[in-house]
């Protein structure tokens, strides 16, 4: 088959539109008549800096990112961020405690009593809060436990506990056990494997009337750029580019500047050693990368270029930016869910309705009673019609239709039609 024969619903990486790839292929050979391809130009060149700055500006425009946030480009994927988030926000927590205990001008005290006090605070009060609502937030919490020890990780809620050991719900906020003064509260906004998405920003994480609220960090790897978000609710948002922004290899962090110098600096290596806390690799230290405008080390400028082109296209296509994209994303999800829901005796949607994802639509095919055989037949027939990438995650099985931004409205309609025909024939 050729590209145009296929409508691809894979969970990631996702398709990038053909016009962008054709332009990118040319840029790889000879970028803007420079005689050199874009991946061959120095990342220190003005040309590279221009590409980075333009992509940052366009991302800020798409997502309405306020001025007091920094955009950082990194490598290491969403998985790298599981470690990064823990390192950097624990560092910020230690820096705040240090200031509290040593006084405003503190930072370099070697007073043994104050040092002991800080160590006791770490042992007793250092907590990272995790909301575990699916496979990805579970992995993130496991990484924090691996690096810092489980005594520093607080599971605020785990949806498996109230759902027969399975993901597919988000526990009632009234049952959440948030710790006081935690280094951060972590959530995965859209669980790609389990098809669970927060319908809105949780009420209990909202800032109070004084503007003070918990430090919230969100993994938006699979739903970034598919709906409007209030960036100011978060201290950090991260995502890999490979689903809604471009190609694999680029990771984006949107970070509140108050977590960067001059507001706050990561604690010294000596202090972290004294506190028996891990020291982040330098390429995982946000302040190092931010200070260098994402060029502390060699960054794939090609990936940033493609992301920039995707953002430009989004801005061109939707004058009302993310609202326009959200309307289409919601409409596509509705079309697919409507088709699935029309045949309750044939299909069973896995997550509960209130939290089901607009982006990763997960269901079982129960037609005829033999789920395995029915799903095999569903996948085979779908593939024959050019509807591919529908197999569920290897850990969960079932069908998963991923509704990323590169899936056109007609693609969603084609899938919905197939779902209806399969059920009735
Ligand atoms: N978080 C979410 C929600 C994801 O969907 C993924 C990948 O699919 C990851 C994290 C891991 O990202 P990466 O493969 O870029 O490390």
Automatic annotation (TrEMBL):
Q: Cofactors per UniProt? A: pyridoxal 5'-phosphate
Query: What cellular component terms from Gene Ontology apply here?
Result: cytoplasm
Pathway it works in:
Amino-acid biosynthesis; L-serine biosynthesis; L-serine from 3-phospho-D-glycerate: step 2/3
Q: Which Pfam families match?
A: Aminotran_5
- Any keyword Acetylation? no
Write down the superkingdom of origin.
Answer: Eukaryota
Q: Which GO terms describe its biological process?
A: L-serine biosynthetic process
| Listed InterPro entries | Aminotrans_V_dom, Pser_aminoTfrase, PyrdxlP-dep_Trfase, PyrdxlP-dep_Trfase_major, PyrdxlP-dep_Trfase_small
> Is Transferase among this UniProt entry's keywords?
yes
| Catalytic reactions on record | O-phospho-L-serine + 2-oxoglutarate = 3-phosphooxypyruvate + L-glutamate; 4-(phosphooxy)-L-threonine + 2-oxoglutarate = (R)-3-hydroxy-2-oxo-4-phosphooxybutanoate + L-glutamate
UniProt entry keywords in alphabetical sequence: Amino-acid biosynthesis, Aminotransferase, Pyridoxal phosphate, Serine biosynthesis, Transferase
Which is one GO molecular function term here?
A: pyridoxal phosphate binding
**Aminotransferase class V domain: residues covered:** 98-405
Q: What is its EC number?
A: 2.6.1.52
Q: NCBIfam families per the record? A: PRK05355.1 (NF003764)
Family that this chain belongs to = Belongs to the class-V pyridoxal-phosphate-dependent aminotransferase family. SerC subfamily.
- What name does the UniProt record give this protein? phosphoserine transaminase
> Top-down, what is the taxonomic lineage of the species of origin?
Eukaryota, Fungi, Dikarya, Ascomycota, Pezizomycotina
């Amino acid at each position: 088959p050729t590209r145009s024969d296929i409508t691809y619903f894979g969970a990631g990486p996702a398709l990038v539109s053909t016009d962008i790839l054709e332009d990118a292929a040319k840029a790889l050979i000879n970028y803007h008549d420079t005689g050199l391809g874009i991946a061959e130009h120095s990342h220190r060149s003005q040309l590279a800096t221009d590409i980075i700055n333009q992509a940052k500006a366009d991302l800020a425009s798409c997502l309405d990112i306020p001025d007091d946030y920094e955009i950082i480009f990194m490598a290491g994927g969403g998985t790298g961020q599981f470690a990064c988030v823990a390192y950097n926000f624990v560092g910020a927590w230690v820096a705040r405690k240090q200031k509290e205990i040593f006084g405003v001008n503190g930072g370099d005290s070697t007073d043994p009593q104050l040092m002991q006090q800080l160590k006791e605070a770490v042992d007793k009060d250092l907590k990272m809060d995790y909301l575990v609502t699916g496979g990805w937030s579970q992995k993130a919490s496991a990484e924090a436990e691996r690096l810092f020890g489980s005594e520093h990780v607080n599971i605020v809620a785990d949806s498996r506990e109230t759902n027969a050991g399975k993901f597919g719900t988000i526990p009632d906020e009234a049952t959440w056990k948030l710790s006081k003064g935690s280094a951060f509260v972590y959530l995965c906004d859209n669980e790609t494997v389990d098809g669970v998405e927060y319908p809105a920003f949780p009420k209990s994480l909202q800032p109070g009337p004084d503007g003070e609220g918990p430090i919230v960090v969100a993994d938006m790897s699979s739903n970034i750029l598919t709906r409007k978000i209030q960036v100011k609710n978060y201290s950090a948002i991260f995502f890999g580019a490979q689903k809604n922004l471009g190609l694999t290899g680029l990771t984006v962090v949107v970070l509140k500047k108050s977590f960067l110098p001059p507001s706050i600096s990561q604690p010294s290596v000596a202090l972290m050693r004294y506190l028996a806390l891990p020291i982040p690799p330098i390429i995982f230290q946000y302040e190092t990368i931010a200070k260098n405008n994402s060029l502390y080390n060699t960054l794939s400028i090609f990936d940033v270029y493609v992301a920039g082109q995707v953002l430009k296209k989004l801005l061109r296509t939707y004058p009302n930016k993310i609202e326009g994209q959200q309307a289409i994303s919601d409409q596509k999800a509705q079309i697919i869910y409507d088709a699935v829901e029309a045949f309750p005796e044939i299909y069973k949607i896995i997550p509960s309705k209130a939290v089901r994802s607009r982006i990763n639509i997960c269901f079982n095919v129960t037609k005829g009673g033999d789920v395995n055989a029915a799903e095999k037949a569903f996948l085979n027939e779908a593939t024959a019609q050019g509807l591919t990438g529908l197999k569920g995650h290897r850990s969960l099985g079932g069908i998963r239709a991923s509704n990323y931004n590169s899936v056109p409205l007609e693609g969603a309609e084609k899938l919905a039609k197939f779902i209806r025909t399969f059920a009735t024939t």
